Amino acid sequence: MIDLIANYYEVRGLKWPTVEQxxxxxxxxxxxxxxxxxxxxGGWSRNNPESHQGFxxxxxxxxxxDSIMMLIVAGLVEGVDPLAALREKVxxxxxx
Length: 96
Hints:
mainly alpha
């Protein structure tokens, strides 16, 4: 996954953020998840409703993925692999 994300940034010509910027981007992506969940509940009055999509599970999955990617990027710019750390923690806590 780390190599895939690095390739994504390279192919798309994206700027690598600082750890703080990556976390801020993760928050904006998470806000898009919340927006979809609010749309699922419905009944909200929105400014410019035509520019806001309704709930869609594929869109939800993509926005969750974007959030996860930015958290991984935050780790990468700090020189740590959060996926490896997560794996180690899960294995340590379940195999003990």
